[in-house]
Amino acid sequence: MQDYIIITDATSDLPVDIIKSLDIIVLPMEFIIENQVYSHYPDGREMSFCDFYSHLKMGRMSSTTQINYNTYKSAFTDILNEGKDILYISFSSGLSGTYNAARLVINDLKEEFPDNKILAVDSLCASIGEGLLVYLAALKRQEGFSIDKLKQWIENKRFEVCHWFAVDDLEHLKRGGRINAAQASVGTILNLKPILSVNREGKLVNVTKMRGKRKSFNYLLQKLKEDGENIESQTIMVGHANCEEDAVYLQQLILEQELASKVIICNISPIIGTHTGAGMIALTFVGRR
Questions:
Q1: What does the alpha-carbon distance between residue 224 and residue 257 come to, in Å, rounded to a whole number?
Q2: Which domains are assigned to the chain?
């Protein structure tokens, strides 16, 4: 077993059982509702996923903050004091300042721990796209990849992670400035579901709109068929923002059509859900981004 630790952010939206089984450390991230600050952990210990989305449905606003210097330093120092090296896989720099914040801490810690390796990789991924990349990296670590070899592998593989998001709540896209008020109003009336993706710069982009959930799910499946590579041997991830029935439905479609043999369902965290709202369905796989 390689003597280094993989660390990532709470934005990776990985299930707790995967995190534990692959010895991944997930740094909590904060969100704020009605002036109350909560730290989101993968097990939802301070606020459950269901309770969070209930707040949003009641019209309460949520905001998020990036991981601060002291949180990084404390988490990294604990591991370095154990004599282990660190490979940190961050949330996309195209969507957050977390990667650059971590780099500042790492530069300072290199002076204090000159004999340790402290490496950081910008995932250029979001939500379960980031989660899939971390999951695959952790499997490579189990195979015996050195920390340097794995860093190079991630930097290449991140461009092969395909992200597709079908958004249900247009109000949150309006608040985030991705659509205007008129588009949100018309889209809601016509039951339009925006389809978003992540580009090679790690930024969220609007791709198209589908009318109704079924058509949006079919679009996601079509992208899996068109862009996925060797998908029958892949692990596919489906994420949901408090709409598990939809996630199970999409999972069943993938399995019934024998597009993949393993589909993992993940909860979309409050950190991501703050910006997408409830009802979002996400699909991620390895292929041509």
A1: 12
A2: 4-159 (3.40.50.10170), 160-286 (3.30.1180.10)
SS3 assignment for the chain: CCCEEEEEEHHHCCCHHHHHHCCEEEECEEEEECCEEEEECCCCCCCCHHHHHHHHHCCCCEEEECCCHHHHHHHHHHHHCCCCEEEEEECCCCCCCHHHHHHHHHHHHHHHCCCCCEEEEECCCCHHHHHHHHHHHHHHHHHCCCHHHHHHHHHHHHHHEEEEEECCCHHHHHHCCCCCHHHHHHHHHCCEEEEEEECCCCCEEEEEEEECHHHHHHHHHHHHHHHECCHHHCEEEEEECCCHHHHHHHHHHHHHCCCCCEEEEEECCHHHHHHHCCCCEEEEEEECC
The answer to whether 135 and 14 are in contact (CB under 8 A) is: yes
Q: Regarding beta strands 161-166 and 281-286, do their DSSP bridges make them parallel or antiparallel, or are they unpaired?
A: antiparallel
Q: For the full predicted model, state whether its pTM sits above 0.85.
A: yes
Which tens digits make up the pLDDT trace of 68-95?
999 999 999 999 999 999 999 999 999 9
